[in-house]
Please model this.
Amino acid sequence: MQKILLAEDDRELNQSLCYALKREGYSVASAFSVKEARMLYQTERPHLILLDVNLPDGEGYEFCRWVKEKTDIPVLFLTARDLEEDVLRGYELGAWDYVTKPFSMKVLLRKLEVILRHMKSESSLIFDDGYLRIDLNQAKFQAGGNEISLTPTEHRLLKELVQNRGQLLTYSILLDRMWDAGAQFMDKHALAVNINRLRGKLEDSGHKYISNVYGMGYQWIGF
Model:
């Protein structure tokens, strides 16, 4: 289920938006201030943010800037501020769209549908849980904000695990797929060595991603 973070201090509008979004099948985390929005962003990891500009303890612009320093999650402004400079500022901060009040709920819902569908297709090989970021398209990897360098074999293993997350990949399946991918001959011992190297680069005491199902194979348990 796709999750939306809504930051809107008008309680009646907030309630109406929550109702409409949930009716469309979205999960909603609702905030009434910048402080609440920051807390919910960190705990809920939303797929999209609906953001008012005027909030009781600050401007949505600053919250948008704070979010965009961390990730490229789509932000859609909902605001009564319709001056050209306000709209341009929103786009300059990386907002996907800038919707002025009053607005059509049907049009807004369609905008969200289009944005999230686009993001899903664009990010099919991009994964980010706040600690680990994997971009299989660009072969770029980060853990705890630090760039990670992977060997071609480690990259291929990671791709197999992530794209089949939640599924047990037996030793024989992984070895067959690594061979098919043009890797050098790999046996069970070499597979274990590469898995351990991957763990050393991706994991720490608080973040575990690869599970060893004893005697059977490996499973990606993150994301």
In short: The two ends are 13 Å apart (CA to CA).
